[in-house]
Each structure stands twice: as C-alpha cells, then as structure tokens.
Design brief:
Number of strands: 6
Largest sheet: 2 strands, antiparallel
Radius of gyration: 28 Å
Low-confidence stretches: 305-316, 510-523
Helix content: 55-70%
Number of helices: 20
Structural class: mainly alpha
Order of helices and strands: HHEEHHHHHHHHEEEEHHHHHHHHHH
Strand order of the largest sheet: 1-2
Oligomer: single chain
C-alpha cells in the first residue's frame, strides 16, 4: 500500500489538518519568524553561539533549527506516546487490530499519521531557516545533511515513543511522558555516548551543531589562548576500528538501523492481543545484542582520556584486561534486557506445553543466555587480541574464565526469575526481582563491611570482583575462582530442577488429551 493512501494517515489528516487549525498554526509560526528575524538582523552586537560569535542569518538559522528540533522530537514523541494508549482507553484499538491493514501498514500509519500537525509546524518554519542560511552563507550540502539527520532522528524518537505507547498500561501516560522527556534532555547535550567510545552523540539535536559547520573536514580545530594556539578535538570525528569517519555518516547509519529494530518491535505486536505481547523473538533479541556489541567494539577508544601522558604525548592505553572489564560492564544492562525478553509467564508455559512445542522450556532461558554469552565472549576476546598492545598485561585463560563466569552468573539469576514467574501469585516476576534485589543488597553490605570487595571469596556471592581480576589475583587464588564458578553452575542446576518440578504441575493430563479423541457411536 502507498504510504500516502494509508487509511490511518488519512484519518489523522482529516482530524488534524483542518483549514482553520492549519491557518492558526501557520500564523503563529509567521509571527515567531518575523519577530526572530527582526531581533537578529537589527541587533547591534554579535550573538554568542557555542563559543563563537554570530550575527544576523547564522544566529537566526541556529535558533530556528533548535525550535524545529524541539517541535519534531518533543511534539512528535508526545503525540506517539498517546497514539495507541488513547485508542486503548477509548476501547477503539480492537477495531483497528481486526482491520485488513497489515501490521506494518498499521504501524506506519500510527508513526507518520499521529504527528502530522507537528510536521506541518516544522514546514512552516522552513522559510525563516532558508533566509538565515542565505544571509549567513551556510553550506547547502551541510544544511541538507543536518535536516536529514534531524528528520531521521526525530522519526527514531517517535518510533521509540510508539513502543512505549504499545506496552503502556492504563494511567501511566504521565510517567511515560516524563520518562521520554528525561531521555531527550539527557541526550540533548551533544556529548559522546561514553568516554570509552570514539563516537559522538546520537541525539537528533546534533543536527543543529552540524548546520553551524563550514566544511566536512575531520581535522582538529584550533583554540587561541592569548598568544598560544592549542589543538581541540573535532566533535564530528569518529573512529571506526581506528579509521576516522565523519559523525554525520555514522549517525545516519545508526538511526536507520535503530529505526528498523524499533519498527519491527511495534509491527510484531500491534495486531496481537495485549496479553501476548513480546518485544522480540529470542533470535531477534540475540541479534540486537550482537548489534549492540558490534557498535561497542567498532567505536571503542583504545586510549583513556585524561590519563598520564607518555613520552610521545599520547595517553597511556588500556591494558587488555581493563578493556575486557569495560566490555563486560557495558554488557550487564543489555544482557539483563535480553534475559527479561526471554522470560515466559505461567499462561505462556501452559500453552506451549499443551501444544507440544515446549522444546527447551525446562531449561529456559539458559540456552539463549549461554549462546549470547558465548558469541559475545568469543567476539570480545578476538577483538581484544587483534587491537591490544602486546607489551601490556593479557591472559587468554583469565579472559575465558571471565566470559564463563559472566554467562553462568546471568543464567543462574534468570533461571531463578523464570522459576518465580511460573509460580501462582499476583505479581510473581516483581516478587522475584525484589528477592534478588534484597539478596544483592545484603551481600554488598556484608562484603563492604568486611572490606572484601576485591577478594576472590566475594566472587562466590557477587560478580563485582570479576571486573578487577588480574594475573596476580588469578595466580594467587586460582582454586577460589574455580570454586566460585562451580557454585554458580550448581545454583543454576538447582533452579533448573525447581523449574522442571513447576512445569510438571502444568503438564496436560491424559484425561484432557483423551477428550479430544473422537467418541465412538453406540446404539
């Protein structure tokens, strides 16, 4: 189906784009544009923007781009948060689910139809941006790239808001909007994702800074301090496995791929019954985990910012074991998200058992967590082996042990959560998370009071000593580290046994199977 003939987009167009509403919006935008143009073109002094002085057209372009970014990101995001949740509150969403629209068509209709008035306001501000660009001498190729990134970044934010709307419960809209605004505010600073990554910000507001550039050069800038000229880093210079790449190209690829992941999540669930929502299939979730780690490995900064300077003026590099610690710490949250996607509730388990397609349900979600840990761990070791400094500390045995401990620690925790989620209770998963949180809080308090945070004996109860493991600690307490790993595996076996006993209670009885057999006719 053509996007412009999508019934959901046409329905929103009839509701939002009425002539009177459009005339009022266009008039308000014209008043703002005229007022800003008069203020900037008749100001007697230059205006400081990002440490540089601009006046007239450049300042007008900068402010208009900021307004357009706020309108697209915040206005479109809030509209998409209401898109599905409002239909559920009005009991009209079920009628949309049974239409002949495919899941992808309905998703695109919600994504591009709900914020139509926001797009119209964005277009109304284009004339002032053109005036500012012409009078300020902006580069048209850079300005076009900035608008492409702005639109694409806003669409990604709208898709994320649509995911929130799909899984939102009644009465939680305000909290969802506050959460969305907090994420937008946290990403609007324009700083890098992490000091460990040679990767610029992924916020759509980066487009505003890009429009102020005069060339596509990746050369470092120069700051004049008195009579001295000091080099400064180029904020649009990323390193892809050590190769300099312009951040605009990187951000374009990231936005496209992230949009594809978000779109597939909504299209997978939008026509399902809300009780059967699943963000991703296990294979898709594993793919997203690999995608995250590819970005982490590709843009990792192999030199620590602010570290003591070496003989050549370059910062001292990470050791290979320190690099693996950073990789493992960065994977804690993604692996926990991956684990929560895999969990199945009591009704889903019963349905799988009755259909005869339970498969590895007795050890769920251990197989996928182990496979994810194996793939990520092998890739991690190979990348470090490739990029490491041969003169610095490294041990393949320690690296393999870290990966194994990390994987079995996750498996143990999520086998416990899966077992609790199969119990007959009001909120079994919430209670399982609460029990797990209480255990870790008590363990941290006891270990901290004994000043044993880095002791190998603490690894029996907590994974934190794993991140500081080096060759000296490994050689001194090899038996303790192996015992800690063995106890994690033993605890996982116990939870598998408990899970199997719970699943045995959910197995269909022979009497229920025989009822499906055809009854013989008797005279």
């Amino acid at each position: 189906m053509n996007l412009f003939s999508n019934p959901e987009i046409l329905r929103n167009a009839r509701i939002q784009l009425r002539p009177r509403k459009m005339l009022i919006a266009a008039g308000m935008c014209a008043v703002v544009e005229v007022a800003l143009g008069y203020a900037f073109f008749h100001s007697r002094s230059d205006i400081d923007i990002g440490g540089a002085d601009y006046s007239g057209g450049r300042a007008l372009l900068h402010v208009i781009l900021w307004i357009q970014a706020l309108v697209l990101v915040i206005g479109g995001g809030i509209a998409c948060i209401h898109a599905i949740q409002r239909e559920k509150d009005q009991n009209t969403f079920d009628f949309q689910r049974i239409t002949r629209l495919s899941p992808l068509e309905l998703t695109l209709g919600k994504l591009f139809g709900t914020p139509l008035m926001v797009f119209f306001v964005f277009l109304c501000l284009i004339p002032a941006a053109i005036v500012g660009a012409v009078s300020g001498g902006a580069s048209w190729t850079i300005l076009l790239a900035a608008y492409v990134l702005l639109m694409l970044g806003a669409i990604v934010c709208d898709a994320f808001a649509l995911v929130i709307s799909l899984f939102l419960r009644r009465g939680a809209v305000t909290w969802a909007i506050l959460f969305f605004l907090a994420l937008v505010g946290a990403g609007s600073g324009g700083s890098s994702f992490s000091p460990y990554l040679a990767l610029g910000s992924g916020s759509p507001f980066v487009a505003v800074s890009l429009a102020q550039q005069t060339s596509w050069s990746l050369a470092p800038g120069v700051t004049h301090v008195g009579s001295m000229s000091l080099p400064t880093t180029n904020p649009f210079r990323d390193l892809f496995f050590g190769v300099p790449v312009h951040h605009a190209l990187v951000l374009f690829v990231l936005d496209v791929t992230i949009f594809a992941w978000l779109l597939s999540a909504v299209a997978r669930n939008i026509k399902r019954d809300p009780t059967n929502y699943e963000l991703y299939t296990p294979a898709q979730a594993l793919g997203f985990l690999c995608y995250f780690n590819f970005i982490l490995f590709a843009f990792f900064q192999w030199y620590v910012p602010g570290a003591p300077r070496g003989l050549l003026g370059m910062p001292h590099p990470f050791t290979a074991l320190d690099t693996q610690s950073v990789f493992l710490e960065a994977n804690v949250i993604p692996f926990f998200i991956f684990g929560f996607i895999l969990l199945r509730n009591r009704n889903q388990a019963r349905r799988l058992l009755h259909s005869g397609t339970a498969g590895r349900l007795e050890t769920w979600p251990a197989p996928y967590l182990f496979l994810g840990g194996l793939i990520v761990g092998i890739a991690m070791i190979l990348v470090i082996q490739w990029k490491r400094d041969p003169s610095l500390e490294w041990s393949v045995a320690i690296a393999i042990f870290r990966v194994a401990y990390f994987a079995f620690w996750l498996i143990c925790d999520f086998l416990f959560l899966q077992w609790t989620k199969l119990q007959r209770a009001g909120h079994p998963l919430l209670m399982g998370v609460l029990y797990l949180g209480v255990y870790y809080a008590c363990a941290i308090i006891i270990v901290s009071s004994l000043h044993a945070q880095h002791s190998p004996f603490a690894a029996i109860f907590l994974p934190t000593p794993l991140f500081g493991l080096d060759t000296a600690a490994w050689s001194a307490h090899l038996g303790v580290w192996i015992a800690a790993l063995a106890l994690q595996i033993a605890a996982g076996v116990v939870f598998i046994a408990l899970q199997r006993r719970t699943l045995a209670q959910l197995q269909p009885h022979a009497s229920s199977i025989s009822m499906n057999a055809p009854a013989s006719a008797s005279l």
